[in-house]
Structures are given as structure tokens and as C-alpha cells.
Amino acid sequence: MSILRFPIKLVARRMLAPTVAHLSFERDDGQVLPCIPGQFIQIHFRYADGSEARRSYSIALGRALDTPPDARVDIAVSYVSGGAATALFEALEIGHRLEASGPYGRFCLFPNDANRRYLLVGTGTGITPYRAMLPQLEKLMHDRSVDVVLLQGARSPAELLYGDEFRAFANAHPGFRYVPCLSRELPMEDSLHAHPDVRHGYVQNVLAELEPDPEHDIAYLCGNPDMVDASFELLKERGLAIGRIRREKYVSNK
Fold it and tell me: What are the b/e assignments for 103-120, b being 16+ CB within 10 Å?
């Protein structure tokens, strides 16, 4: 069965971190791109020898819930030294086109969830699905009084992708808690270091501090496979049923 592809055009680029770019595209065939927050698209291209390649990228764009789908799609791309996909994106100029397909995936918030709290855990570009979910989470906090905790793992503040947006969202929504977990120690004078929700260490170690509740929590894990596996085991040990632990592993693609 062939995959239906469509053209997308690069309309904007900005760096989120020294090696991560936020790329904004528009579908370039006159069609819209309906998607559910948490889904991903695939970019199709060819290696230097002409063989086909594709890479998957979570959609980072969160649309307001009362707006119809449009042609936009945003992704976050990690640049890997010597990578074929990295070379493709670094050379891509505004207005140039790529081939894409999708959206795909089920790493989404389920409409029949009746939990009291979401535990969202992400590292690297695995944080992007949660950015897309923010409008949906805002509605759930309003409609069901659900609490949300976002644990974001990074080595340093410079690598907290969309961190300013998550902090601003937390400041505006009492039901949303943003906990950056930094694996490298910071100087005490660093302003981020002083925030009471900043933790030092890996997210899977900080997760236990939240006292996962098997009856009332649903957890989402996205990012580094080792982190996902370690967090999954911790949550199982705390009694969470497998169906209440939703996972998506990210492997650095070249």
C-alpha cells in the first residue's frame, strides 16, 4: 500500500537550542492538515546514493480548540553531526519544499480519560508533543479540574526546548506545574537555579518525588529510550497499570 505524500514549504526557522531548530511549514497543495495533538509527520527524502529515506517528527504546533484545521505544521529538529537529515534541513531555504506524509500516531490524550492528574515526562525533542497538547490540557483543567505536571529533562537551561513557553503557561494556570530537570549542576547565581520547581538530576529519578498514584494518574513518556524504559519500570513498581502509561521513544536520526 503506497503512502500518500504531500508537499510542504518552509516558511520560518528559529533555533531553540544550539543544535535544535524549530521549523515552520505550510502544506503547499491547497489542502489542510488535520491532526490530533501528539501525532507526528514523516519527511521523505533520498540519500546521496538515491535510495529512499524518511524521518519522523512530532507536530509541535498547538492550535486553539475552536479553530478549524489549516495548512500549518511545526516540528523541532535535532541537528546531528554528519547526518543526512541534518544536511537536508540545514540547507533548506525559506520557500523551499519537501515531501511529507501523515499525520500518524496515537500518543494523544484520550477523550474518555477520567484521571485526576497527568504526569508528562519528556527529554530532548520528545517534549514537542506536550507543546501541541497545551490548548487541550487547558480545556481539561477547566472542564475536569485535572492537574498536570510536566517534567522536562535537559543537560542545561539552554537545552530546555520551549521552556519559556512552559513556564509562562504554568504561571498562568495554577493546575499546571512545570518541573525542569537539569542533569548538569548550575552555578547558584543562575536565575533558573533559584526557581523552587527546578530539580537537578534525571527525570526518571525526580518522577518518584511526585508520588505516582495508580488510581488517579495517567503518565506519558516521550524521548530518550533509556529514560522511557526507566520511567516505565518505576511507574509499574508504583502500581500504575500498563494501560495508564503511554510511551513514545525517540532515537536520534541521522
Answer: bebebbbeeeeebebbbb
Residue appearing with cell numbers 479553530: 67
- Please give the sequence-ordered ranges of beta strands (E in DSSP) within 5-78, or none if there are none: 6-17, 20-27, 40-46, 52-58, 72-78
At 189-214, the pLDDT tens digits run 555 556 789 898 899 999 999 999 99
**Closest C-alpha to 27, from 44, 43, 7, 13:** 7
For 234, the grid coordinates are 518505576
What is the number of other CB atoms lying within 10 angstroms of the CB of residue 64? 9
Global confidence as pTM: 0.93
Residues 6+ apart with CB under 8 A from 67: none
CB < 8 Å & 24+ apart, contacts of 188-191: 190/157
CA distance 119 to 178: 10
- Retrieve residue 25's grid coordinates: 511549514
C-alpha–C-alpha distance, residues 90 and 70, integer Å? 26
CA dihedral over 130, 131, 136, 140, signed as positive or negative: positive
